[in-house]
């Protein structure tokens, strides 16, 4: 009889659905930050300055991620992946629902942005613990020959979450004039309660990771986060740097691009949201295809090709967006979507394969959190600041190219992982060899 694939399929489905819901929660914030929060929480400033302050609250969620990464990584390496993922999903959903109920600056003054930042910080802690667990549940349930493909399903949750958030905001655009700014922006946040209930039900039905069960039988590490940093500090930092490029490209084009298109190029909100939705329709299958390709040719070649492609398409994207015409703008967004998918589609499996199972949750979370603070989290702020200083989008494209260069160099220092087993086997000494030899 063949191997029962139902536990793997449930794990992959739970990772995908839960991640999509959590990223929906995260992205409706970023969309609101680009389109609404400047007016609702920072109304006393000029539009672009208000947008910059709004994006500053956005980055707070990324700053909080390392805290969540260490906290939930510790729990995930000691208590198991499944239980932690249920907690992070519940916490993320609760924070999103609360944001939908927050008073605005016109109602409570300075307390409005203070409350917004506080809830956003807790939301970031939850997401900091989410990613590593979702990746590991998918990868650790998969066979060695197909880890790239099944690991990419976790990454698919990101464009699905973004597409859902933009679709909801696009529908809200149909409300009467002024409704979005007055109360319509709250609807996507309140709707998240229904999505979280679905994800919660799915995750409760998933089996614990088989590799964690092996770790638990031998005895989990007492301080997994400390041991991960002590034994694997080099690959953690190199992975964090390698992950800068896809995070920067995604948030510069898909998040900052919303405000750039509406405020600088002066196209409609609906047009920019539509461009993002069409881009995600391309990203989704590409992530799966490149994940499967990495199973055949290796993680590094696919990832490196994606980074190089992002560097080559940064300036064409910007110049095409500057035309203000839908078709050229769409071409620009599609150009950056394909190489982004190559890099991001392989990232999850690359991270999981570099670290031993006993400290893997902590190591993946820490690496990904660092990458997001300095890559994805900073991209909208850096891009907005460059635009304010130069009144031109060209420096933003140059910034993307620079980040891609850093990622390419650091990726080259990592060892290829596709030919090796992601698990740590029975020997603790093999764990140390994998961790210490992951970077050359």
Walk me through what this model shows:
- This protein is mainly alpha-helical.
- It has one domain: Growth Hormone, Chain: A.
- It contains 20 helices and no strands.
- Residues 421-440 have low confidence and may be disordered.
How would you summarize the topology of this molecule?
Elements: H1 6-35, H2 37-41, H3 47-63, H4 65-79, H5 81-99, H6 105-108, H7 111-140, H8 147-172, H9 179-184, H10 186-204, H11 210-218, H12 224-242, H13 244-264, H14 269-297, H15 299-321, H16 326-354, H17 360-374, H18 379-390, H19 394-412, H20 428-437
Helix pairs in contact: 1-3, 1-5, 1-7, 1-8, 1-10, 1-13, 3-7, 3-18, 4-5, 4-7, 4-17, 5-7, 5-10, 7-8, 7-17, 8-14, 8-16, 12-17, 12-19, 13-14, 13-15, 13-16, 13-18, 13-19, 14-15, 14-16, 15-16, 15-19
Quick overview of this protein structure:
It is built from 20 helices and no strands. It is mostly helical and 440 residues long.
Task: Supply database-style keywords.
440 residues, mainly alpha, Growth Hormone, Chain: A, 81% helix, disordered C terminus
